[in-house]
Specification:
This protein has a single domain (about 15-240), classed as GHMP Kinase, N-terminal domain (Ribosomal Protein S5, domain 2, 2-Layer Sandwich). It has helices at about 50-55, 80-85, 90-100, 105-110, 130-150, 180-185, 215-240; strands at about 15-20, 25-35, 35-45, 60-70, 115-125, 160-170, 175, 190-195, 200-205. The strands form two sheets. It has a five-stranded mixed beta sheet with strand order 1-2-3-5-4. A four-stranded antiparallel beta sheet has the order 7-6-8-9, with helices on both faces. It is about 35% helix and about 30% strand. The N and C termini lie far apart (about 35 Å). The longest helix is centred in the last third of the chain and has 26 residues, at about 215-240. The protein is α+β, with helices and mostly antiparallel strands.
Length: about 250
């Protein structure tokens, strides 16, 4: 099956990372999954949440925020601040980003610090949450590497990289990395977050007014694993990590 943008069923959109997009952040990247573009930044604070102090939890913490800028969609999206509250979708996605990145960062090794991850969607064409996670991991790595370079930590507090990708069934065909028209038409939609060691951090899947078989689920998982590993290779390349050591840092 050739898709509307010319891709094959198992082909990612063009992926790119532009480092240092936010100079005041400890680490930042503009990540592009095709026409979806997200600025991901990581900033360090020399403090941890009150609950960690009250419960005597050692090490650091990581938390994430996600937002879609007003001009990221075809019709203007009102800012959360103008409505007085975050919408449920943004809350769900930023919690997902936080869970995903906590699988990557060695929080005990981070010390008494909070790593703040911010993901701001500049342009949305499907897969904003998967692009955010993939880019946020790069930003977090850069921020943690700076701690080591500044001799504030003896070693890199990163366990492994994580990436995320969408898959789905569109007109009966399993597809990798859905753009907006495909996502809108999908009978089944799935998002996978995976480590470079091939372990799942999270799998989100649902039938959109449809059902799917165990065989279709297996096909989607295999397609997602393939895409996630391609993204890991792209992350390692932009970060200058030897590809031969994939799976460990």
């Amino acid at each position: 099956m050739t898709r509307h943008d010319g891709r094959q069923a198992d082909q990612l959109r063009p992926i790119s990372f532009t480092l240092g997009i936010a100079p005041h952040a400890s680490g930042s990247v503009l990540v592009a999954f095709g026409n979806t573009r997200v600025i991901c930044s990581a900033m360090l604070e020399d403090a941890v949440p009150r609950w960690m102090k009250e419960q005597n939890v050692a090490g650091g913490w990581l938390t994430a925020e996600y937002s879609m800028l007003p001009y990221s969609t075809l019709s203007r999206k009102a800012r959360d601040a103008s409505r007085g509250k975050q919408d449920g979708r943004s809350i769900e996605i930023q919690r997902l980003i936080g869970r995903a990145l906590r699988a990557a960062v060695d929080l005990p090794a981070l010390g008494q610090r909070t790593l703040w991850i911010d993901c701001d969607v500049l342009q949305a064409d499907g897969g904003t949450r998967t692009a955010s996670i993939t880019g946020a991991c790069v930003a977090a790595f850069l921020a943690c590497r700076r701690l080591v370079e500044e001799r504030k930590l003896p070693r890199l507090p990163i366990r492994q990289l994580v990436s995320a990708v969408s898959v789905g069934i569109v007109r009966g065909e399993p597809l990798l990395d859905l753009d907006y028209p495909e996502d809108h038409a999908a009978e089944v939609d799935m998002n996978l977050v995976m480590t470079e060691a091939g372990q799942y951090v999270e799998v989100q899947s649902s039938g959109e007014e449809a059902v799917f078989s165990p065989q279709q689920l297996d096909l989607l998982l295999a397609l997602g694993r393939q895409g996630a590993q391609q993204l890991i290779k792209a992350q390692r390349s932009i970060l200058g990590i030897e590809l031969e050591g994939a799976g460990t840092l």
